[in-house]
Design a protein that fits this description.
This protein is α+β, with helices and mostly antiparallel strands and about 500 residues long. The protein is built from 24 helices and ten strands. Helix 2 crosses helix 4 (about 60-70) and helix 4 (about 60-70) runs antiparallel to helix 5. The termini are far apart.
């Protein structure tokens, strides 16, 4: 039973926040109501001595999060991109979590690389630096290949990182289950499913072979995207705990002063971050799911460089169309259509009133339009959206969690570069292009062609399957399909041939 361990982990979390002085900062930044503040201090203070000390050189919240471990660091990374939610000062403190965490010794990294790749580091690389960046799960070394001299980045997992994550995730599951029991209204948010999704994402990030595959796919999808650089992996020098990938030099997006000194257009760069993300999500259905400033740099020519492909998102074509129509509805202020899409997709229970839902969506969208972006309080907007979803019985869509989370992070990154950015205006051309190509008449014909191709592929089997089904429906006691008559066989073959021909014709017209 891990119950006592999970209780201990959660108690120590609150105690650590109290001991490091972070709890007051967090409650103030999140504008917690007085009863919550009092309860948190009462529950945390008696156990203060049990909390972790952390690094006294760090600010209180960063100190507490780094002491608590990698799962908490992941949450801190997300919050670091949202100054409009946690405040500018706390956001700046949390940026340390993106790529400036304490590294582990280089000698340990070299031993791990040798064990994973089956040869000494000196044989594989002509040079191997000390860590150049360290995050919650891994650290990166700059190296040069022994045979070609090419500069590469070598990513090495932290020792025992999977075990550390397991402890945190078990505690999160424990908390989620008790939240569902003690707060029934929270069940529609499916907290256990949310943690399960988080677990899947994290465990995938702990196998660098999967990241290698994701980097290769992402590079292939985006090779024609202007203003984007995606380093390519070196498969022969990668494994479960080691990833070798091309080196790309640039300025971190969290270094605004250096970006300005280099003469790079911050406004254009902020727009590029947002439009590229939307393009990848809608066009490819495969997007970078961890786009905080620590994973993004800008090259001297203004191109955006992406790193760290451990968390990637994938959404199917139907969900992409739903997402695009929702965005387009908000952009056009067509709240009735946004409501209809929610009902059509099953996001809102069918017994709710569509007009009431459209009116609630208008109350969410209208305050955004015509308002200068820096005046929009994302915290208040999210709070109101929460009230709307609760009132209309909308359940959390686990398949959209990563997309929604990444959208929030990307907007935060873009607005750090351009505080006056209007997300809707920047998104409009990308969404309109997708709508034209994927939701209009051409898309309908493309869908019909794909359907015909599938039917044609199974054409030879259709006569037997259909006849057997009809016979069973008419006489359930018949154990086997009787032999086909020559006449019926000819009719079925002609039908299959017609479908096959239709598939070929439509496919040729639309795709060739």
């Amino acid at each position: 039973m891990r119950g006592p361990h999970n209780i201990w982990r959660l108690v120590r979390t609150l105690a650590t926040l109290e001991r490091t002085g972070a709890i007051g900062v967090v409650l103030e930044a999140m504008d917690a109501p007085p009863p919550v503040r009092v309860a948190a201090r009462i529950l945390g203070w008696p156990f203060k001595w049990l909390g972790l000390k952390g690094d006294p050189a760090l600010p209180p919240v960063t100190r507490a999060i780094t002491a608590l471990g990698p799962a908490y660091i992941k949450f801190g990374q997300i919050l670091s991109t949202r100054p409009d939610i946690v405040g500018h000062d706390l956001s700046e403190q949390l940026k340390v979590l993106q790529d400036k965490l304490p590294p582990f010794p280089t000698e340990i990294a070299k031993r791990m690389v040798a064990a994973e790749l089956g040869a000494p580091v000196e044989t594989l690389f002509s040079s191997f630096s000390d860590p150049v960046a360290a995050a919650s799960i891994a650290q990166v070394h700059k190296a040069h290949l022994a045979d070609t001299g090419e500069a590469v980045a070598v990513k090495v997992l932290r020792p025992q990182i999977e075990r550390a994550f397991r402890k945190d995730i078990d505690a999160f599951y424990f908390a989620a289950r008790w939240i569902e029991i003690l707060a029934p209204f929270s069940r529609r948010l499916r907290p256990v499913d949310v943690i399960a999704h988080f677990e899947g994402v994290v465990l995938g990030e702990l196998d660098l072979r999967l990241e290698c595959a994701a980097a290769a796919e992402f590079a292939a999808n985006t090779e024609r995207d202007e203003g984007l650089v995606v380093p390519r992996p070196v498969w022969a020098l990668s494994g479960r705990s080691v990833l070798t990938i091309g080196w790309a030099e640039g300025i971190g997006l969290n270094d605004i002063a250096a970006i300005e000194a280099a003469g790079i257009d911050r406004v254009a760069l902020g727009h590029r971050v947002l439009t590229l993300f939307l393009s990848h999500a809608l066009r490819d259905g495969f997007f970078h799911g961890d786009m905080h400033q620590g994973n993004l740099k800008v090259a001297a020519d203004g191109s955006l460089i992406t790193y760290d492909f451990g968390i990637m998102g994938r959404i199917d074509e139907y969900t992409r169309r739903v997402y695009a129509e929702i965005l387009m509805g908000f952009i056009r202020k067509d709240y009735r259509r946004v409501a209809e899409v929610h009902f059509e997709a099953g996001y809102v229970p069918a017994d709710r009133d569509i007009d009431d839902f459209a009116r609630a969506l208008r109350a969410v969208g209208e305050p955004i339009f015509g308002m200068e972006a820096s005046r929009i309080s994302m915290a208040r907007l999210l709070a109101y959206l929460f009230e709307v979803t609760e009132r209309f019985g909308m359940e959390t869509r686990t398949e959209l969690i990563l997309l929604q989370r990444t959208m929030v992070v990307v907007e935060g990154v873009a607005r750090s570069l351009d505080p006056h950015l209007n997300m809707w205006e920047v998104a409009r051309p990308v969404v309109e292009q997708y709508i034209r190509s994927q939701v209009g008449p051409v898309a309908v014909m493309r869908d019909l062609a794909r359907t015909a191709r599938v039917l044609a592929r199974f054409g030879p089997k259709l006569p037997a399957l259909a006849e057997a089904a009809l016979i069973r429906a008419g006489n359930p006691d018949v154990p086997q399909r009787p032999a086909q008559s020559p006449r019926n066989r000819v009719l079925w073959l002609l039908a299959g041939a017609a479908l096959f021909a239709a598939g070929l014709a439509l496919g040729w017209l639309l795709f060739d």
